[in-house]
Amino acid sequence: MNDHVTQDPQALLDRLDAAATRYETPCGTGRMVWRLWDTSGGTAPVVVLFHGGAGSWRHWVRTIPVLAEQYRVLVPDLPGLGESDFPPDGDNADAVAAIVADGIDAIIGIETRYDVVGFSFGGTMAACVGALRGKRLRSVTIVGSSGVGPLGSAVELLKVRHLEGEERRETHRENLNRLMIADRNKIDELALLIQDWNTVRSRLRTPSLSRSGAILRAIDRLQAPLNGIWGELDAPANPQAPKRVAALRERCPSADIRIVPGSGHWVAYEAPETVNAMLLEMLARTRD
Predict the structure, then answer these.
(1) What does 177-191 look like in DSSP terms, one character per residue?
(2) Where would I find the beta strands (DSSP E) of 202-268?
(3) Strands lying side by side in the sheet with 114-119
């Protein structure tokens, strides 16, 4: 299943999607969509991956196959994003996280312990779910998350929804370089395909939730170990990235926090080998 290098990015996504079991759980009067990759027959430990703002499960396309060799990997489209419906209270991070936590319970049961890993806005969800479920969490890992220290530089993105063809494609490339991927040479066809799919289906205003203070309130309530990963060149964090890391370390001295050199915000895509190795090491420390 670990075949992210391909000449046909849509075929890669289709194969990965086909290898998962699809679940739906309530999201207000609508539904929240989940995918579970399980090659263990239900015996492996569970890790839940939360994608970033304006994203979907596809943000983890280069991580899912690696973790699925050792874990049951559960990945949602978060409420108001991807295929999932808009939540009843989309301005409240804790309310959104409650829908997410209930969905996990419905799929894996209320007795099963699990790890959570969240990218960007997904880090807010990971911390909030961790605070809600307490000792059921083995660990909480946030990746490129804002809201844990000084605000970084505002990243101005180009409007894309009205564009078509090559102009739309190149605008996605520019936005990815500004916000997500530091090395322009690593913006490949798969990244462009994922960005376009995600952008069309983005409805939840995640930046305000990420900056609402919910992540810090949740971190203060965590009963599980906390880990953090940032790309050295994370555009939303810079030039404040070192201050964010310092602030988090001061708040949670026991946290394991890593910086990935030369990489940007979507660090799990830009530097998958490095990030996947870090995640496996972090997860192994608390594995049952």
Answers:
(1) IIII-S-GGG--HHH
(2) 226-231, 256-260
(3) 21-27, 30-37, 72-76, 46-50, 114-119, 137-143, 226-231, 256-260
Lowest-confidence region among 20-24, 60-64, 221-225, 229-233: 229-233
Beta bridge partners of 227: 141, 256
Q: Cis omega (within 30 of 0) on the bond before 225?
A: no
Which pLDDT tens digit goes with each residue over 231-273?
Answer: 999 988 776 667 778 888 899 999 999 999 999 999 999 999 9
Q: Which residue has the higher pLDDT, 31 or 5?
A: 31
Round to whole Å and give the CA distance between 191 and 195. Answer: 6
| Domains in the chain, CATH or no CATH each | 9-156+203-285 (3.40.50.1820)
Check: CB of residue 182 under 8 Å from CB of residue 155.
no
Element (H, E) at 278: helix 272-285
Whole-Å CA distances, 26 to 129, 206, 221, 229, 244: 16, 20, 26, 31, 35
| pTM of the complete model beyond 0.85 | yes
The 10s digit of each residue's pLDDT in 87-125 is: 999 999 999 999 999 999 999 999 999 999 999 999 999
**Longest Cα–Cα distance in the chain:** 50
Fill in the DSSP letter of residue 176. Answer: I
Q: Determine the distance from the C-alpha atom of residue 197 to the mean position of all C-alpha atoms in its chain, rounded to a whole number.
A: 16
**Beta strand pairing status for 30-37 and 21-27?**
antiparallel
pLDDT, tens digit, 9 for 90 and up, residues 201-224: 999 989 889 989 999 999 999 999
